[in-house]
Amino acid sequence: MPQIFTASADTRLRVAVFLLGTGVVGALLFGGGYVNSAYVTRVGWTRHQPVPFSHKHHVGDDGIDCRYCHDKVEVSSEAGLPSTHTCMTCHSQLYTGAPVLAPVRQSFSTGEPIRWNRVAKVPDYVFFNHAIHISRGVPCVTCHGRVDQMALTFRAQPFQMQWCLDCHRNPEPHLRPPEMVTRMDWSDWDPDAHKDFGRLAVKAYGIDPKRLDACTVCHR
Ligand code: HEC
Ligand code: HEC
Ligand code: HEC
Ligand code: HEC
Ligand code: HEC
Question: What's the gap in Å between 96 CA and the centre of ligand 3?
C-alpha cells in the first residue's frame, strides 16, 4: 500500500490533535474558573496535623514573635518549621501532662521529628527566598494572612505566578520598615504614611520592578 503520510507528518498530526485537545480542555477549565478556584489554589484549606498547633493561641493571645519558632526566616531562603526542642522550652513546664501534647513529648524522647503537613508551598521549579523579602520589608501578613487569628494554619494567598508578579511589578504599597515585618496589624495603620514609605523604600533599596518581572528571577 502506498504511503500517504510520511512518518514525521504523522507525528505532526498527533501533536496537532493533542494540542487541540489540551487547548479545549484548558479553555473549559479556565472558562469554568477551575484554574483560579480554591480547589486548585488551596486558599483557606486546613490540613490535619499530628498536634493541633494554634497560631491564634501562641501568636494572637500569647504574643510570641514569628521568629521565635521560624528562626531562619531573616537569613535563609526557608523560614523553617520549629524543632520539638523549641516547643519544649515552654512545654516542659506548661501543659506537661496534656494528652494533646503527647506527640510532642514522644518526639522529644525518641528524637523523631514531628511531621507537619505543609500548607504553604510552591512547586519545586519555582525559586523562592524569604531572606530577600524580609530584608526589603515585605511583611509576613501580605503573603500568609492573619496567621495570628488561625486556630489551624491555612494558605491565605493562591501562590500562583500572577500573584507573585502583581507585587513584583508594583511592590511600593506593600513595603514597611523591616523591623515591622512580623507585625500582623500594619494594615490598620495610616495608609497615607504607608504609601509614602513604600515609594521611598523602593528608591533607597534600588528595587527595579522591570527586572523583577524576568522569568529567570523565579525560574533558575
Ligand atoms: C514561648 C512558649 C511556648 C512555646 C515555644 C510553645 N508553646 Fe504551646 N503553649 C504555650 C502557652 C502559653 C499555651 C497556652 C495557650 C493559651 O491557651 O493561650 C500553649 C498551649 C499549647 C497547646 C494546647 C492547645 C492550645 O492551643 O491552647 C498546644 C497543643 C501547644 N501549645 C502546642 C505547641 C507546639 C507543638 C509547640 C512547638 C511548635 C509549642 N506549643 C510551643 C506556650 C508555648
Ligand atoms: C510557637 C511557635 C510558632 C510561632 C510563634 C509561629 N509559628 Fe508558624 N508554625 C509553627 C508550627 C509548629 C507550624 C507547623 C504546623 C502548622 O502548620 O500549623 C507552623 C506553620 C506555619 C506556616 C505554614 C507552613 C506550611 O507550609 O505548612 C506559616 C505560613 C507560618 N507558620 C507563619 C507564621 C507567622 C507569620 C508567624 C508570626 C506571626 C508564626 N508562624 C509564628 C510554629 C510557630
Ligand atoms: C513574599 C511572600 C512571602 C513573605 C513576605 C513571607 N513568606 Fe513565608 N512563604 C512564602 C512562600 C511562597 C512559601 C513556600 C516556599 C516553598 O514552597 O519553598 C513560604 C513558606 C513559609 C513557611 C513554611 C516553611 C518554609 O520555609 O518553606 C513558613 C513557616 C513561613 N513561610 C513563614 C513566614 C514568616 C514567619 C514570614 C515573615 C517573617 C514569612 N513567611 C514571609 C511566601 C512568603
Ligand atoms: C508583596 C510583594 C511580593 C510578593 C507577593 C512576592 N515578592 Fe518576590 N520580591 C519582592 C521584593 C520587594 C523583592 C526585592 C527586590 C529587590 O531587592 O530588588 C523580591 C525579590 C524576589 C526574588 C529575588 C530577586 C533577585 O534576584 O534579586 C525572588 C526570587 C522572588 N522575589 C520570588 C518571588 C516568588 C516566587 C513569589 C511568589 C511565590 C514572590 N516573590 C512574591 C516582593 C514580592
Ligand atoms: C515572581 C516570580 C515569577 C516570575 C518572574 C515568573 N514566574 Fe512562572 N511561575 C511562578 C510561580 C509561583 C509558579 C507556580 C504557579 C502554581 O503553582 O500555580 C509559576 C509557574 C510557571 C509555569 C508552569 C505553568 C503555570 O502557569 O502554572 C510556567 C510555564 C512559567 N511559570 C513560566 C514563566 C515564564 C515564561 C516567565 C517569564 C515571562 C515566568 N514564568 C516568570 C513564579 C514566577
Answer: 30
Q: What is the pTM of this model?
A: 0.91
Integer Cα distance of 182 and 139 in angstroms: 6
3-class secondary structure per residue, 34-68: CCCCHHHHCECCECCCCCCCCHHHHHHHCCCCHHH
Rounded to whole angstroms, the Cα distance separating 142 from 169 reads: 15
Pocket test for ligand 2, best of 153, 181, 183 (most atoms within 8 A of CB): 153
The answer to whether the beta carbons of residues 160 and 41 sit under 8 Å apart is yes
Query: 147, 150, 139, 83: which is closest to 113 by C-alpha?
Result: 83
Angle at 180 between CA 178 and CA 182, to 5 degrees: 105
Q: What is the pLDDT along the chain (220 residues), one digit of tens a residue?
A: 445 555 555 545 454 444 444 444 444 445 445 556 666 677 888 899 999 999 999 999 999 999 999 999 999 999 999 999 999 999 999 999 999 999 999 999 999 999 999 999 999 999 999 999 999 999 999 999 999 999 999 999 999 999 999 999 999 988 988 889 999 987 656 666 677 889 999 999 999 999 999 999 999 9
Residue whose C-alpha is closest to residue 89's, from 116, 72, 52, 64: 64
